[in-house]
TrEMBL record:
InterPro entries: dTDP_Gluc_deHydtase (IPR005888), NAD(P)-bd_dom (IPR016040), NAD(P)-bd_dom_sf (IPR036291). This is dTDP-glucose 4,6-dehydratase. GO terms for molecular function: dTDP-glucose 4,6-dehydratase activity. It catalyses: dTDP-alpha-D-glucose = dTDP-4-dehydro-6-deoxy-alpha-D-glucose + H2O. It comes from Mycolicibacterium chitae.
Length: 331
C-alpha cells in the first residue's frame, strides 16, 4: 500500500510510521507534516531511509492534491492537539483541524483515495466522575474546549463527505495516549521530565479528573486494523478500559521513579476541565477482533519513563520553554 501519513512527525503519527515500517515493510510511506512546535524530524530518524518526509501544511490544497494523487490511502493524524494552547489561541486549531481536514477530504474525493481520520474521545464532552457510563459510537457529540470542538467539526466533515460524495473513509475516536515521543507539554511526559530535571510535578486542581489511558502502540494497532478491515463510513472507538484519575497516575509515576507519593504541587486547574472520559471498545473487539497488548499499566508506564530517561536529547531542548509557558499561566 502507498500510504500518506499526515502529522507523521508528531507523537502518535511517528509511532505509527515506525511500527508500519517494522510490521509492513511492503508499504511505501510518505509523511506530510508542517513540523510545528509539536512535530520533530528526529522522531522519524530511526526510519528515515524507509520514509519520505514532506514538510508542508495539510491545508495547502495544491500540495495535498499532489500527494493524495500518488497514494492508495491516507491516515490523517495532523492536528493541533493541546487543550491548554487551544484555550490561549484557538485560531491554529480551526486552521489545521477543520480546514486541514476539509482540504484532505476534497483531495480524497477527487482521486478516489481511502481515508482514515484520527479523532479523539474528547468530542463527546465528559462523563460524571462517579458514573459507570462509557462513550459508544452513538454517544452525541458535546465538545467542551476549542480543541475538541475543532476535532468534532472535522469528524462531521468526514461523515458528510461519506454521505454526500461517497468518500471511502473511516473515523476512530481514541482515549488518552501515552508512550515514547509524546511532547513534554502533555500530562505524563511533563511529570516524568519534571522529576528528571529536578522540578516538582504539577497537578491541575485536585487531580480527581479521570482519563482512560492507552499505550500509543495499541492505538496504532487498532488504526491499522480499521484501515485494513474497517467498514466504509464507520466510526470506531478505541480504548483499553484503563480508567485512572490524574492523581493516581501521578502517584504511580512518583512511585516508579522512587519518589515520595506527595512530592508534587497542586496548580490552577484548566478552564472547563473535562471530568471523566471512558471508552466502550466493544464494537472494535467484537467486529474487528482487536484487543490491546499493553494491559499492565505499571509495566507500560515504567517503559515510558525509561524511554524519557534514556532520550533526553529528544525532549530536553523543548522543556524550558514549555515550563516557562506553564509558569506564566500559574500552572
Ligand atoms: N495524544 C492523544 O492522547 C490523542 C488521543 C486521541 C486522539 N488524538 C489525535 O491523534 C492525532 C495525533 O495526536 P498527537 O498526540 O500525535 O499530536 P501531536 O501534537 O504530537 O502531533 C501533531 C502533528 O501534526 C503536525 N501538524 C499540525 N498542524 C499541521 C498542519 N496544518 N499541517 C501538517 N501537519 C500539521 C505537527 O507538526 C505534529 O507533527 C490528532 O489528530 C489528535 O487529535 C490524540
Amino acid at each position: 500500500m502507498r500510504l500518506l501519513v499526515t502529522g507523521g512527525a508528531g507523537f502518535i503519527g511517528a509511532n505509527f510510521v515506525q511500527s508500519t515500517v517494522r510490521e509492513h515493510p511492503e508499504d511505501e510511506i510518505t509523511v506530510l507534516d508542517a513540523l510545528t512546535y509539536a512535530g520533530s524530524r528526529t522522531a522519524l530518524a530511526p526510519v528515515e531511509d524507509a520514509v519520505e518526509l514532506v514538510e508542508g501544511d495539510v491545508a495547502d490544497a495544491a500540495l495535498v492534491d499532489k500527494l493524495v494523487s500518488a497514494c492508495d490511502a491516507v491516515v490523517h493524524f495532523a492536528a493541533e492537539t493541546h487543550v491548554d494552547n487551544a484555550l490561549s489561541d484557538p485560531s491554529p486549531f480551526l486552521h489545521s483541524n477543520v480546514m486541514g481536514t476539509f482540504t484532505l477530504l476534497e483531495a480524497v474525493r477527487k482521486h478516489g483515495v481511502r481515508l482514515h481520520h484520527i479523532s479523539t474521545d474528547e468530542v463527546y464532552g465528559d462523563l460524571d466522575l462517579d458514573g459507570s457510563e462509557r462513550f459508544t459510537e452513538t454517544t452525541p457529540y458535546n465538545p467542551s474546549s476549542p480543541y475538541s470542538a475543532s476535532k468534532a467539526g472535522a469528524d462531521m466533515l468526514v461523515r458528510a463527505w461519506v454521505r454526500s460524495y461517497g468518500v471511502r473513509a473511516t473515523i476512530s475516536n481514541c482515549s488518552n495516549n501515552f508512550g515514547p515521543y509524546q511532547h513534554v507539554e502533555k500530562f505524563i511526559p511533563r511529570q516524568v521530565t519534571n522529576i528528571l530535571t529536578g522540578r516538582r510535578p504539577k497537578l491541575y486542581g485536585t487531580g480527581a479528573n479521570v482519563r482512560d489511558w492507552i499505550h500509543v502502540d495499541d492505538h496504532n494497532s487498532a488504526v491499522r486494523r480499521i484501515l485494513d478491515q474497517g467498514g466504509m463510513g464507520r466510526t470506531y472507538l478505541i480504548g483499553a478500559s484503563n480508567e485512572r484519575s490524574n492523581i493516581t497516575v501521578l502517584q504511580a509515576i512518583l512511585r516508579l521513579m522512587g519518589r515520595d507519593p506527595d512530592d508534587f504541587d497542586h496548580v490552577t486547574d484548566r478552564a472547563g476541565h473535562d471530568l471523566r472520559y471512558a471508552i466502550d471498545p466493544t464494537v472494535l473487539r467484537d467486529e474487528l477482533g482487536w484487543t490491546p497488548a499493553h494491559t499492565d499499566f505499571d509495566d507500560a508506564l515504567r517503559a515510558t519513563i525509561d524511554w524519557y530517561r534514556d532520550n533526553p536529547q529528544w525532549w530536553s531542548p523543548l522543556k524550558d520553554a514549555v515550563e516557562d509557558r506553564y509558569a506564566k499561566r500559574g500552572q
